[in-house]
From TrEMBL, chains A, B:
Essential cofactor(s): pyridoxal 5'-phosphate
InterPro entries: Aminotrans_IV, Aminotrans_IV_CS, Aminotransferase-like, B_amino_transII, BCAT-like_C, BCAT-like_N, BCAT_family
Residues bearing PTM N6-(pyridoxal phosphate)lysine: K198
One term of GO molecular function: L-leucine-2-oxoglutarate transaminase activity
Protein name (Swiss-Prot/TrEMBL): Branched-chain-amino-acid aminotransferase
Highest taxon of source: Bacteria
Pathway, per record: Amino-acid biosynthesis; L-valine biosynthesis; L-valine from pyruvate: step 4/4; Amino-acid biosynthesis; L-isoleucine biosynthesis; L-isoleucine from 2-oxobutanoate: step 4/4; Amino-acid biosynthesis; L-leucine biosynthesis; L-leucine from 3-methyl-2-oxobutanoate: step 4/4
Keywords carried by this UniProt record: Amino-acid biosynthesis, Aminotransferase, Branched-chain amino acid biosynthesis, Pyridoxal phosphate, Transferase
Reaction catalysed by this enzyme: L-isoleucine + 2-oxoglutarate = (S)-3-methyl-2-oxopentanoate + L-glutamate; L-valine + 2-oxoglutarate = 3-methyl-2-oxobutanoate + L-glutamate; L-leucine + 2-oxoglutarate = 4-methyl-2-oxopentanoate + L-glutamate
Originating species: Bacillus thermotolerans (Quasibacillus thermotolerans)
């Protein structure tokens, strides 16, 4: 690694008390350290460093506050029974980060450096990786445009930051099947837009529909395509799968659907088990008809936060589609057990998905 | 005004040197003070205050950095020949801010308080309002979600901020007609999305297309509808107008087009002059045909930054549409002269558009 890419480490002089593992929630507590690297046009990405977790001091004219040029990623570190720490497919995250960067006109980061930074950061804060059932250390790499300039153009300055949060289960209800509202009015993304990028605007635009779902006591919304409002795209923070007459079906990546890493892992695992998996266009009408004819056997969402989240019901206009009597299906259960087992080092890892954070990654103080 | 809404003022102990009015550019220099008000769930908006212009200190987990929940506005203050300071239709901006807030699940602000804050801030920094031809004080009210939480949900904490920047002409070329690239691949917004809201994500998603336009030496892109890519929506940072066979035509507001204040003022002024103005769906094919038959007389954009910006050429796929021989048309010229004249207090103001910043608005120190 070149000289300018040596990661400097400044350790916190005091460590924060760690929250009780029973009540972690999601995204509320943060570890003692963070990673930062700056980008300056002409100089590139520079000064990678691990520093005590601290506020950012930014001019109020910084472009992130006005024009939303930003990207992020999400992944998790897990503690194994024998006290090792594992990351789940982290290179996939940094590859996707760079795809998001390209769409949002943000300069690419060195994926190897990012992974090395992540490993060192986790090693420094390894005591923050919780061990209780269902818990993990959620890792949030993100990039924000920091140039102090009011004008619509790609920024000349950015910060790449990684923060980490010990988390419990994403869904308060745990693995219990969730109820999903099919959204007919609001649109998340359209071909030619930014749906495939993990960028803030996609999430900001989803809030209004989620508010309606909350009022109706549904957990999340299912997004339909923005053109015809017929074809299924994804669920709030997850990709979505259906089991129809023994076959697994999921919407094909079309430019407006997030290319989920748990989605990809699910497809690979199902194929490994010899199941038929088809990525194609899926209409809501088809799901309704499969439900009416008794062929809709299961539905579930996939995502880093929840891993596998069984879906027990869809509300589509005035039609209620109950899936598998509102209970978790065998495929979702087996996927959840297998993937979370691999993540925790408790199951064989046939695809070499996990990356261990080695003790020697801890930088010498 | 209620006690808790009294605007506190802390003046800067030192004033910055003011930039030369010849080389202001746009959005690069900021005044000595800013306005801030906080929102806390359960307490509402509170602690409105004018303070020295200063960096924001924000936790790296603040939602604005991750999920893009934000809105903004843009308006200008002008210095008249006789040294008065005028705002152009500021109540329109705060009404639109609240419409954007509604779409983005951000709590509404008190529009009267916002206007009072704006007037006081301009009064405090009135020496920053430039006087040279084409210059003004650009005002940027914005709201960002500040809750330190990694989860996709409306935030419980926000900051409403106003910053101000003395600016020259938005376009480096001045009033010279611009060349516009019609965008066929990327999409800015779609019905059911956030196109009508002034929110960061809309601007972030536009950068990639703008990059392509820059490479081809076009100033901005013209966005087509996201569904059929046939109908005209708006130009990069402006609404768009056409004069076809003596009639003025502009795309009707459809939920994905920004409800521009200069657009509205242009329509009102044209009608006041007795011209026929139609807001309706306009296809690119129609514009091309009008051009071919010699009926396309003018085209221009409207926006706060540029006010009126004549368009001299469109490139639509491989078809080049030259408008009015690439010269400014009489309607655009008359609109520009009249609206900028009203803004600077040099022309009669038949609609009471301008609001004077009174000397007594300066708070007692």
């Amino acid at each position: 690694m070149a000289e300018e890419h040596t990661i400097q480490v400044e350790l916190a002089s005091e460590r924060k008390p760690k929250p009780n593992e029973d009540g972690l929630g999601f995204g509320r507590h943060f570890t003692d350290h963070m990673f930062i690297m700056d980008y300056t046009e002409g100089k590139g990405w520079h000064d990678p460093r691990i520093v005590p977790y601290q506020p950012l001091s930014l001019d109020p004219s910084c472009m992130i506050f006005h024009y939303g040029q930003s990207v992020f990623e999400g992944l998790k570190a897990y503690r194994t029974e024998d006290d090792r720490i594992l990351l789940f497919r982290p290179t996939q995250n940094f590859q996707r980060l760079n795809r998001s960067n390209d769409r949002m006109c943000i300069p690419a980061v060195d994926e190897d450096l990012a992974l090395e930074a992540l490993k060192q950061l986790v090693a420094v804060d390894k005591e923050w990786v919780p061990s209780a059932e269902g818990t993990s250390l959620y890792i949030r790499p993100f990039i924000i445009s920091t140039e102090p300039f009011l004008g619509v153009a790609p920024a000349h300055n950015y910060k790449f930051i990684i923060i980490m949060s010990p988390v419990g289960s994403y869904y308060a209800e745990g693995i219990k099947p969730v109820k999903i509202l099919v959204e007919n009015k609001f649109v998340r993304a359209v071909a030619g837009g930014t749906g495939e990028a993990k960028t803030g605007g996609n999430y900001a635009s989803s809030l209004k529909a989620q508010e309606v779902a909350d009022e109706k006591k549904y957990s999340q919304v299912l997004w339909l395509d923005g053109v015809e409002k017929k074809y299924i795209e994804e669920v709030g923070s997850m990709n979505v799968f259906f089991k129809i007459n023994g076959e697994i079906v999921t919407p094909a990546l079309n430019g407006s659907i997030l290319d989920g890493i748990t989605r990809k892992s699910t497809i690979e695992m199902l194929k490994h088990w010899g199941m038929k998996v088809t990525e194609r266009r899926v209409s809501m009408e088809e799901i309704y008809e499969a439900s009416q004819s008794g062929q809709l056997e299961e539905s579930f969402g996939t995502g880093t936060a929840a891993v596998i989240s069984p879906i027990g019901e869809f509300l589509w206009e005035d039609r209620k589609i109950v899936v598998n009597n509102g209970e978790i299906g065998s495929t979702a259960k087996k996927l959840y057990d297998t993937i979370t087992g691999i993540q925790r080092g408790a199951e064989p890892d046939p695809f070499n998905w996990v990356v261990e954070v080695e003790e020697q990654s801890v930088p010498v103080k």
